[in-house]
From TrEMBL:
It comes from the Eukaryota. This is F-box domain-containing protein. InterPro entries: LRR_dom_sf (IPR032675).
Length: 538
């Protein structure tokens, strides 16, 4: 029998699927009814990823009936009748589409408790999404455990990537149950991310037991100050572990460590961490030094994040960083944090520039992040020296959100010029500078940032009198696409910074329009067509 070939290349399912997979969902929807083949391929693409609450509700609508005479507009869930549902035919329809789903970004499940309860009680099959690969649940409440009990409904054995934000409760049973469910329902995880404002010691103990069972794990992400000795210990002989990281959803505030969560010295073997590329370790300086000096420590790692559970003095920090310099000769990414809560809150330790000189001598460094409870007392000259020392930097964050911001920064705002001149590869810069004092912009030429995508100014002070000068400097320095990110703390400085952002955006838009020749047509402005005096080829 002779094979039939599609009349047009776009009728080839594989090619069509590859094109539509990189198209906006609105484009896919608009072309859904061009042909039967486009419909079959397009519907699979549309159901492949549920990325927001509206798409999640669209999935739930398969199990009920939309009320015709209900409130028009608004969320689908408000018009969904689930009384007496789901019927057998509804489950069949649900199963038809659920096999397409590969990724789900769950909304706050507490808002969909009725639907989740019905699914839990009536589902005819255990695995609702047999081909699900990625599951995110980052929208739950930090202060409310409601909705968390429904999360296991969506945890499938096929999942390889799972991220969850857990509520801030000490010893919360729901939190511990979710953690204990992970290896039972998702045993083949390669990526696990657990974030929380304050993950309890009880939850950490449960997590310690869980990660030991996930033998395929390649990346583990935990809240700050939770990658402790026991976690390092249990992962030491995992064959595939590449990254152990921390992620802060707390906004740089103080992190509380309850009990003795940070105690315990990890023990390494000759086979430990053969595939490791990035390590985060929360320990005091003595334990961290012991780990770094262990003969079996993976000294070839490219990334290291040291988190201090107690505030450290300059001399102790310098000694620790000298060990880092001596041991980790291939570092490209180094991070240092000591913003944990300290019982002696008056115990402030300022870290002078000289503390970090050992790290600045690592020539291949592309990422340097420092988070400290006090502002870094570094001068403009020292920051300029740092910029010269690390020309390959792509991401630099120098404590833009100090926990105690009552002390003014030592460097004035024009210090930004040094980083624009010497660190041309920078894509992200976070820095605590003083924009409240007068400064004069010299008319000499200077290099703007080429690649900067985000300027994080955090809690940097600014006065209303300096707004215009700051806007002029930023307009000359920043690419038009660069975002200015500020602290969420309400303050007079934030009001002034809000005006800076507004004026700078306005100036950027005006400059773009000025560079584009336009002609007036009636009351509208349209871009002029510019052509060269060249004849087209015949």
């Amino acid at each position: 029998m002779q094979e039939t070939h599609p009349a047009h290349p776009l009728e080839t399912p594989e090619l069509l699927g590859a094109i539509l997979a990189h198209s906006d969902k609105k484009v896919v929807t608009a072309n859904l009814f061009l042909s039967k083949r486009w419909f079959l391929v397009g519907q699979e693409i549309l159901w492949r990823s549920l990325e927001d609450a509206a798409q999640f509700e669209n999935m739930l609508s398969l199990l009920g009936e939309l009320v015709v005479d209900g409130p028009s507009g608004g969320p689908i869930y408000n018009r969904l009748n689930l009384d007496g549902y789901p019927h057998v035919d509804k489950w069949k329809k649900f199963q038809k589409y659920s096999v397409f789903i590969r990724s789900i970004y769950l909304p706050d499940l507490h808002l969909y408790a009725k639907a989740c309860a019905l699914i839990s009680l009536n589902r005819p099959f255990l695995d609702l999404f047999p081909n699900l690969v990625t599951l995110h649940y980052d929208e739950g409440s930090d202060s409310n455990k409601l909705g968390l009990q429904y999360l296991p409904l969506f945890m499938q054995p096929s999942i390889l990537r799972f991220s969850v934000r857990l509520p801030d409760f000490h010893g919360c049973l729901c939190t511990i149950q979710v953690i204990e469910t992970i290896p039972q329902r998702t045993p083949d995880l390669v990526y696990l991310e657990i974030t929380s404002i304050n993950l309890s010691v009880e939850a950490l103990v449960a997590l310690h037991q869980v990660v030991g069972e996930l033998q395929n794990l390649e990346t583990l992400v935990l809240p700050p100050y939770r990658v402790v000795g026991d976690i390092i210990d249990v992962l030491a002989l995992h064959d595939r572990i590449r990254e152990i990281k921390s992620k802060d959803v707390h906004g740089g505030r103080l992190h509380r460590l309850a009990g003795s969560a940070h105690t315990g010295q990890p023990y390494l073997f000759p086979e430990s961490y053969q595939t490791l590329e990035f390590l985060t370790f929360c320990a005091n300086a003595e334990s961290a030094t012991k780990l770094l000096e262990d003969p079996h420590f993976p000294s070839g790692i490219g990334g290291l994040h040291l988190e201090m559970p107690d505030r450290v003095s300059s001399s102790i920090a310098t000694s620790l960083l000298l060990t880092v310099q001596r041991t980790c000769t291939s570092l490209e990414d180094f991070r240092f944090s000591d913003t944990a809560w300290d019982s002696s809150l008056g115990n402030q330790h300022f870290l002078p520039y000289s503390t970090f000189i050992p790290v600045l001598s690592i020539p291949a460094l592309t990422v340097l992040h420092i988070h400290h409870h006090c502002p870094l007392p570094w001068t403009a000259g020292q920051l300029t020296e740092l910029a010269r020392s690390l020309p390959l930097l792509q991401s630099l964050h120098l404590n833009e959100n100090p926990v105690d911001a009552r002390i003014q920064p030592s460097a004035p705002f024009p210090t930004l010029l040094a980083f624009a001149q010497h660190c041309q590869n920078l894509k992200s810069l976070g820095i605590f500078l003083d924009a409240s004092i007068p400064f004069i912009l010299e008319e000499s030429e200077f290099l703007p940032f080429r690649l900067l995508q985000g300027l994080h100014l955090g809690l940097s002070p600014i006065s209303q009198e300096r707004v215009e000068d700051v806007v002029v400097l930023l307009t000359r320095l920043l690419p038009n696409t660069c975002n200015i990110i500020l602290s969420s703390d309400p303050s007079s400085s934030n009001t002034a910074w809000g005006e800076v952002v507004r004026l700078r955006d306005l100036l950027s838009r005006v400059q773009i329009r000025v560079r584009q020749p336009t002609v007036a047509v009636g009351m509208q402005t349209t871009q002029a067509m510019i052509t060269t005096d060249v004849q087209a080829d015949e």
